[in-house]
Amino acid sequence: MFKVDLHVHTSLGGDSHIKPNKLVNRALEVGLDAVCVTEHHSYALSEPVQKISRETNFPIFRGTEYRAAEGHLLVFGAKVEKSELLPGLPMQFAVDWVNGRGGVAIPAHAYQKGIVGSYLGDRVLELKNLIALEVLNGSATSEENRRALEAATLMGVKGIGGSDAHGLISIGKVYTLFPSPIETEEDLILALRNGGYTPHWNENMKL
After folding, report:
1. pLDDT digits (tens), the chain, 207 positions
2. Which strands make up the sheet holding 2-8, listed edge to edge?
3. I need a surface site. Which of 7, 32, 60, 99 has the fewest CB within 10 A?
4. Nearest to residue 61, comparing CAs of 2, 132, 109?
5. pTM exceeds cut of 0.85
6. Hey, is 44 helix, strand or coil?
7. So where are the chain's domains?
8. Is residue 180 within 8 Å of residue 206, measured between CB atoms?
9. Alpha-carbon span 159 to 180, nearest angstrom
10. 163 with 134: CB under 8 angstroms?
11. How many whole angstroms separate alpha carbon 136 and alpha carbon 160?
């Protein structure tokens, strides 16, 4: 079994207090096997974590969090930059753009209110060509997460979990449990498509 926090932000993106060189120690402290850094709108921003991953022999994957017109979208396996996918486009367009480039697009905190541009709500039910929703988000309320899980069930798609950490203490608060180890970003894409994973709260942390 392999525990990955699929939704982490660092200071590289400018809106988090997490220094990249602190990622690995904290992840190990809370029992994770890997983390995925998902800076906003830029895959290139997270490039420095590759060196940290090599030096520590700890998997740090890279994705992005894209702000669509209706809400936020986690992107894995497609190197999103603002110059290629402008912020604020319709989410279905972004999903199809990512899929067309061999990636995986997963709506994040679909029912979380209070964040500008994040409240997708029941519009998520209209989206096509999805394989999963983020159904456990570490910064969402239990009701917001419940509604996301309910939507995933209605849509017949899988669910992932991520802390959405912007501070060191939140890393690993929520994770996705995969049935087998994942070594590369290519492996992560295959694992997300193949299913068999489940979202979890971290019992090693005081929540």
Report:
1. 999 999 999 998 778 789 999 999 999 999 999 999 999 999 999 999 999 999 999 999 999 999 999 999 999 999 999 999 999 999 999 999 999 999 999 999 999 987 666 689 999 999 999 999 999 999 999 999 999 999 999 999 999 999 999 999 999 999 999 999 999 999 999 999 999 999 999 987 754
2. 104-108, 72-76, 60-67, 34-40, 2-8, 174-178, 198-201
3. 99
4. 2
5. yes
6. helix
7. 2-201
8. no
9. 17
10. no
11. 7
Cα 183 to Cα 180: distance, rounded to the nearest angstrom: 10
Classify domain 2-201 at the CATH class level: alpha beta
Euclidean distance between CA atoms 90 and 69, whole angstroms: 5
Contact between 139 and 72 under an 8 Å Cβ cutoff? The reply is: no
CA distance 154 to 48: 39
Q: What does the DSSP 8-state code read for residue 106?
A: E
Alpha carbon 93 to its chain centroid, in Å, reads 19
pLDDT given at position 115: 67
Output the 3-class SS for 60-96. Answer: EEEEEEEECCCCEEEEECCCCECCCCCCCCCHHHHHH
User: Do residues 132 and 103 lie in contact, with contact meaning Cβ atoms separated by under 8 Å?
Assistant: no
Contact 176, 162 (CB under 8 A): yes
